[in-house]
Specification:
Layout: E1 13-14, H1 19-24, E2 30-31, E3 40-42, E4 48-50, H2 51-58, H3 61-73, H4 84-99
Parallel strand pairs: 1-2
Antiparallel strand pairs: 3-4
Helix pairs in contact: 3-4
Pfam families: DVNP
GO molecular function, one term: DNA binding
Length: 100
């Protein structure tokens, strides 16, 4: 007599757009890239991201220089860097901050 078909094994690997969310919430064990729940955090927009990548992004020296330059020049709102008089001033200030 033939053997009865076995039930398909439930995957522990999360795939697709919501994979990090599934892992973080404990529905799956890891992502395709190998991230476990302990490697995932929520960013300020509520998206689930890699802790390592998030930390690396926060150490971006150019972004910090631009933020400091904007504060020093008192700029508010959108200012395209190196375009127009405000943008050129912003770029120059950021360069000096970066070099100091």
């Amino acid at each position: 007599k033939a053997m009865k078909a076995m039930k398909a094994r439930k995957s522990i690997v999360a795939k697709g757009k919501l994979s990090k969310s599934q892992v973080y919430k404990g529905r799956k064990v890891k992502t395709v890239g190998g991230l476990k729940a302990s490697d995932i955090t929520k960013n300020k927009y509520g998206k689930f991201v890699s802790k390592k990548a998030s930390a690396r992004g926060k150490t971006n020296v150019w972004a910090k220089a631009i933020a400091a330059a904007r504060k020093a020049l008192g700029l508010k709102g959108f200012v395209p860097i190196n375009k127009g008089p405000e943008g050129k001033a912003l770029y120059a200030k950021a360069k000096t901050i970066l070099e100091s």
